[in-house]
Amino acid sequence: MAAPWFMFATGIENSYPTINNGRTRIDEMEKCGHYTHWRTDFELLQDLDIQFLRYGSPIHKTWLGPERYDWEFSDLTFGHLKHRDTVPIVDLCHFGVPDWIGDFQNPDFPELFADYARAFASRFPWVQLYTPVNEMFICATFSAYYGWWNEQLASDRAFVTALKHIVKANVLAMAAILGVRPDAIFVQSESSEYFHAEDPKAIKPAELGNARRFLSLDLNYGHPVSSGMYEYLMDNGMTREEYHFFLRHSPLRHHCIMGNDYYVTNEHRVAADGRSWAAGDVFGYDDITRQYFERYKLPVMHTETNMNEGPNGDEAVNWLWKQWANVLRVRNTGVPIVGFTWYSLTDQVDWDTALREDRGNVNPLGLYDLDRNMRAVGRAYKDLIRSWSDVLPAQSVCLNVPVVLPSETDEPFVQRRRDWMRRYHEARHQHRSGEV
User: How many whole angstroms from its chain centre is CA 389?
Assistant: First the structure.
């Protein structure tokens, strides 16, 4: 039976938004060399002693049209992960959609994406952990509120339209995957934010930001939004029927781990006119994560963080230590936290402009550089995993995620669990339909 883990993870950066009105796609897998070096990248995981990987197929190369797929690269990479007994946390949509979809304003996207999720789960039935849509709030904000990516719109109505389509796609994908893999677990990687008022005149826009930051997870988990946010959604194109769709699907939250991403840019100083800029880590991951936990009462995972290696060469190492101290603080205050992620495995490209410009600037954020040489933070993370991997699970035999290794997929105990979960879903559906 699967061992009790604390999930130490990393990720392969696979963002692929479009810019220049859709004419240019920023494909981080290509920029970072993963299409060429994927075998080497997977071997690096063994060197780090990491068994959990946030990873996904490039949706724009895989999903060619309705019920049309090119699985060649996915078969190679996921087959290799299965052979290595690496547990992927599968990222199905990371900041972009195929050209034939258009963008996140397309109302057909949610149902079509659910079909893609179902097809993926059927193709790779041994996969258990998923992030259907990565960072839904950031995706909607950057695409339809800041005007940076994809549809490149900048209005409240465009933001609400993108958000409701993105979150509905995530919800329908969860349901579709559970139809194939009843014991699936969803690690919903989402940015954790906080907005600080610069002065008394900025209190109102800061409060608005602090209410709006919860919208994606409120909808995803079927949590009632605040009265102010309900009016905001209704005023900007969401209907009562659309809102109640999310409330009806709230039971899916029982399959969820709330992933909280935290960077030094996640806290914002807000001016009276609504402008904002990075505030640094004022509260920190610990405080902000507990705010989200108090709202949703779900197990937590730190699903993304990184820091530029910096001129002194130790900035990233110090940031890793600070984030890990915050994870321990979260755990010690009674929040069930089950994992930690340095994102990503290798350096990234052009994130210094939030992928808004195609410059080819290498950002030294990875555990390894793009020549696949280990950075100082990689050595520090390897030491951290070695020191803590046996300590944290032993602190609580109850706080363990029922993760199944790829090699265990067909074991009798796993089959029994899946059969039980299938019967559970059928009974719940019948109960909601009034049949029992």
Answer: 23
